[in-house]
Amino acid sequence: MYLTIAELVEDAERRQLPVCELMIRQEIERSHEPREAVWEKMGRNLDVMQQAVADGAAGEGVHSTTGLTGGDAVKLRKYRERGRTLSGDVMMQAVQNAMACNEVNAAMGVICATPTAGSSGTIPGILFTLTDRLGLGRDQQIRFLFTAGAFGLIIANNAGIAGATGGCQAEVGSASAMGAAAAVEAAGGTPRQSAEALAIAISNLLGLICDPVAGLVELPCVKRNAIGAGNGLIAADMALAGITNKIPPDEVIGAMDDVGKNLPRKFRETGLGGLADTPTGRRLKESIFPAKKNLSAFRKTESAT
Amino acid sequence: MAVSGDATQHSGRAADDGDGTSSKTANYRSVFDIIGPVMIGPSSSHTAGVVAIGRVVNEVFRDEPETIVVDYYESFAQTHQGHGTDFAIVGGVLGFATDDRRNENSLEIARRRGIHVSFVEKEGDSPVGHPNTAIVSVSNSRRSVQVVGVSIGGGVAQIKRIVVDGFDVRPRGTLPMLLLRGHDSDNQELGEKLRGVCLIGDVRSFGGQDTDERMYEYDLDSPLTQRMVEDVVHGDDRIFYLR
Q1: pLDDT given for residue B11 in this prediction
Q2: Region labeled Disordered — which residues (chain B) (predicted)?
Q3: Which CATH architecture does the domain made up of B8-16+42-242 adopt?
Q4: Nearest-CB residue to B38 (from A27, A64, A112)
Q5: Is the dihedral of CA A200, A201, A204, A205 positive or negative?
Q6: Which of A11, A35, A174, B136 has the most CB within a 10 Å radius?
Q7: In terms of CA atoms, which chain B residue is nearest residue A123?
């Protein structure tokens, strides 16, 4: 299996195959499943993403039980209908899709973790926008997900994808980079350009902390997915324009790992730092979990033994 | 427990790392670890990964629990509330799959079955050095099992320790794995049956208390085929298939 971006890119160039094809073959070899089974499984993941993106922006949208998030994807849909967005409709479509999907996640709906649930809006945000923009068929959309997965596996094995270990850069940062790399391939770019897009996308989100208000995957997670999708498209466009990151992708992943390891615990999904530790963040937590000790008779706090 | 956690390495059934490009351990091996799982929100570490830890407890315990105690550390101690972590871990212990909607009602289901469930937010560092650590202790009048699990992100779990029947197993951690309780002859026999299955590293074994049997650890590169599960795992209560 590919453990570095360099190996993946070199193999794709040497064998004259797109990254998605290398990923499909690796999965077949590992799982001993026929190609159709692997393909269909990814197809079902695609269906779940499509449904989440649609549900989050339909009607009045979805709302979480806490009331912290929900309905923003609908606001964007209506705003886009007026036709006067500042950054253009493609970008706002990506943002709407990303937020819709993550609002569904916050409302405990069914999503596909890409790579995590907290970052599950970023890749659908990029993918379904390109579906319209580039006219991608179902097969191409499934290929997009295999490409994203190939790059994501390398990030996950070298740096990690959990906010609790690496901060938000490991979640939305990884998702943004995976989406950027897959976007380049879907647009006809080279494997090397995909790798550059990945490097640019991670570099731009390096150091992003995980600071969920009340410890919930809502604030600021839903909007972070918007920036993940936007950043992914920007990085992909830069790479397609021939811009390189100068710092190679594997070194960027190494930097992300190092930054994550050195983040104080309060910035790694504990809900104790950043936005969670603002006066308003603390007040929201108190209103959602009033007097934690009364909430559950059997829950108790102990010192370490 | 007075049992040594030291593992004995068994050579001769080693496996390489696929194409041998690197000896680095890969925590994530399938594209569906990254694009997937399909799950109910809001956090893959706090729900899907925790169901996986609970399911390991279920597989090892294989009985109706009377009590379930979950110790949470670090990020888990701070944020399990509202993430559905409590429902997920108990759902896993009850044997539910990641996408089983019964997980949402697992605490109620446990209560109706007369199982006493408690959650403890530990203030210190994780004993295994990971912020998403849960220690699940399950018992009834006949036996008890303790499993130390960590949720490493994206719904993927690792198992750091299993205490069962006087054995103190400290596995490498990555799922799937097979545990076999028995003697070296049983290990040889299982090794034969698993010919053709790619293993990660050597088979290791752990000694038990008041027994000359050992617990053998087979780290699998990928899940067993359904046929393998039926041929090798089913009907053999000395084998625990953890996935």
Answers
A1: 52
A2: 1-23
A3: 2-Layer Sandwich (3.30)
A4: A112
A5: negative
A6: A174
A7: B35
- For testing contact with chain A, the best of B21, B23, B43, B115 (most A CBs within 10 A): B43
Is B154 in Cβ contact with A116 (below 8 Å)? yes
Reply yes or no on whether the pLDDT at A5 is more than 60: yes
**Residue A290 located in a structural domain:** no
- Mean pLDDT (whole number) for A89-100: 98
Q: What is the ipTM of this complex?
A: 0.94
Low-confidence winner among A28-32, A186-190, B175-179 (lowest mean pLDDT): A28-32
We report the CATH number of the domain holding residue A164 as: 1.10.4100
Residue B142 burial by CB count (10 A; 0-12/13-18/19+): exposed, middle or buried? Answer: exposed
How far, in Å, CA of B11 to CA of B23, rounded? 17
**CB neighbour list of residue A87: distance below 8 Å, 6 or more residues apart:** none
Site from A40, A102, A161 to mutate, B interface, most B CB atoms within 10 angstroms: A161
Q: Which domain holds residue A178?
A: 5-284
Examine residue A230 and state whether it is found in any structural domain, yes or no.
yes
Instruction: Please report which residue ranges of B64-197 form alpha helices under DSSP H.
Output: 74-79, 85-93, 106-112, 184-193
pLDDT above 90 covers what percent of chain A?
92
For an interface test with A, which of B34, B45, B156, B174 has the most A Cβ atoms less than 10 Å from its Cβ? B34
CB-CB neighbors (< 8 A) of B148 in chain A: none
Distance CA B207, CA A18 (A): 49
Is the CB of residue B155 less than 8 Å away from at least one CB of chain A? yes
| pLDDT for residue B17 is more than 80 | no
